[in-house]
Amino acid sequence: MSIGISSLGFPRIGPHRELKSALELYWSGKIDAEELQADAAALRSRNWTAQRDRGVTVLPSNDFSMYDHVLDTSAMLGVVPEAYGRLGRAVGLDTYFAMARGNASVKAMEMTKWFDTNYHYIVPEFYSGQHFELSSTKPIDQFAEGFRAGFQTRPVLLGPVSYLLLGKSIDGIERVSLLPNVLPVYVEVLRRLADAGARWVQIDEPCLVMDLAPKATEALATAYTTIANATEGLNLLLATYFGGLGRNLELALRLPIAGLHFDLVREPSQLAAVAARAPRSMTLSFGVVDGRNVWRTNLRAVLDSIEPIVADRGLDRTILAPSCSLLHVPVDLELEADLDPDVRSWLAFALQKLDELRALSMALERGREAASEAFARSDQAVASRAASSKTHRADVAERLTRLTPEITRRANPSEVRRAAQRESLSLPLLPSTTIGSFPQTADVRKARSAKERGQITASAYEELLRDWTREVIRWQEQIGIDVFVHGEFERNDMVQYFGEQLNGFAFTRHGWVQSYGSRCVRPPIIYGDVHRPSPMTVAWSTFAQALTLHPVKGMLTGPVTILQWSFVRDDVGRDEVCRQIAFALRDEVADLETAGIRIIQIDEPALREGLPLRRSEWDTYLRWAVECFRIASSGVRDETQIQTHMCYGEFNDIVDAIAGLDADVILIEAARSKMELLDAFAGSYANEIGPGVYDIHSPRCPGEEEMTLLIEEAARRIDPSRLWVTPDCGLKTRTWDEVRRALTNMVAAAGRVRAKLAERTR
To answer: What is this structure's pTM?
Structure first.
């Protein structure tokens, strides 16, 4: 007998971001749809081959997406808002990408974070009486494609209940009440997959690790009873991840499913309960390798925990898998020749995680001696990391012991600070600003690459940066923005830039992870105690400030976001790592203030993302997350204004925590939601707020009239004396043509509303 090995899902982008390249060539008109589809098919084939060669026996299909798997599900179900005007029943590429990115005539749909990850998904829209029909056969097509190429795959579908819960109601309808309308499409897809030769289908229901309302639990029972009755003979593996099943375990085990996947990395304690209560006939998929982080698995510890249960239940009813899809980790560690050898020996990327699963399977099937070499390497990595002097600093540990409540509090309340800042800054009503970055053009990227390869000197590179900074300061003066930024041309990434100047971080060259669509990031790896050896941003901030009389913001990434957008060490608590980062940033804030910077923005777009999936764990997380922001921000005078930025998250549930940050100004994404996000802040948030009026993730450039209406809508919800005007996010990914038009319109719109408000008070 043999044990199954599954990946649940594999990184879509390719080891060298091949998908990104193909998408951007298509969007720019340099290749056509047929060429794009051919490139995507080639990448899928390489992914299947790579997984099979690494020992995977249960290959996934339909885990590949051109943009986002939630958007794929919307396309499958025909969930296309009327504004996108699809022609006919099928959802074609143009409609699909219009929903994701917008175009000249329509805005992109809302985007938010996939559970507690930094992956973004396109939010489905639901309404009363909504009709669903099969509008994309992608799951069937990709299964058939693999089948023709000799790959017997297990198709992956996002489950109907999780899908509905991930969407938004635009007319107040209970989302799961639409389940009876959705299920016929799922049944049709599953029947077609069975007819095409599928034996198993993986249906992901990550909602099962969350606190579920009674209607949601009823919906899950209804969904899988209906599906099982209509698809007899097809085996369903229900996949859960990102946490433990907890009170939902009994519900999951009552469902008519053939297999259950559960996450033993996030919640190892659930192993005994699942094993004891699962029917003997049920196949169990053990999520034993971390699909969310890059550290090597302690193979011996995993084997010790699961070996007795596997022996009891039988190899043929067992599958070894990552905790979740490998979408969230880089593809191949073998590409990283420049990493510190010690740190590299502690890591495993997607392909190496499959090697770990194969070693575990060999040990379970043939005894531990069969995988002795792999286990020896694992043991060595565990011991080396634990003993390494690279992971701990006594001065960092000692500083954390000196943390007191006074360190986390500003000297005076916000109303006192606001008066001092108004006198110091002399800003108009509805002051305009931007979030931080300006376009990282091909010239900027080319110069950075040339400097890294030694083709230009560091001094020549810095002179280019100075020229671009001078130009952007002059341009902001020309269009009349009130609070400037220096453009961040020297920065490669809002987290990497800081990590490269802090102790305790390592960086990859090819460790790319998809954030959304073609947007990829290379998360830093926090392997040791975090310490700031010297100032990181002061030189560029003071250079820019010397060019103008307008205030130029100092720009920092906040401690929670640096934590969330990194691969974080797992040998100490996340809260401890975050405090280390916060103290490093506190030193930077102090140096900026001393250098004369009057406004300092500390971005925390990941604050909501880090929220645990179970409400019972929220208070603990929010307590230390807010504390860390305040450690970083509270050591300044009243006159120094602290701003923060957040985007693409549901903030309603954490408004009290956001208020607890005690930032003088919060700048938030609001354009896609047409200011709906302000409802969360209208009653209980007393500090100043800048709702975004320009969706920077779409190539569409909003006009002055449109932005005027958004600012007026914001002014109806928030006292105008507390309002700022800003884009949704940084402008790094946009072109200068788009930015010039959009920001000129934004400044003009702010001026129009400012004049109207002044007229009313006369």
So the answer is: 0.91
